[in-house]
Write the structure tokens for this entry.
Amino acid sequence: MSLDPDAFFSALAHPLRLRTLILLHQEHELCVCELTHSLGVAQPMISRHLAQLREARLVRDRREALWVHYALHPELPAWARRVLADAAAGLAGQAPYQHDRAALAAMPRRAVPKCCA
């Protein structure tokens, strides 16, 4: 997969997209309800940013019943994965990234099968 570096770094430049990509790097796959809960944003807002990330081929989605799950694109180049890994490691203990993971871990009904039933 050829990834446009300008599109990649442009995606990282927006705080919500950066937080989303870091969460997806750490968690591997999340549904929209998990992202809205952990990031504290409304569904239309996160969906708009996820669409931009999908169009840039940074994430892929899959539908399961009523839920849409997102993950980093499986063909994301190694250099882009390293950038995300380094960013996640460097920012893990800082706000808002630390809060995002804590909110996700504390999400009620997260362990229920079929996502956020």
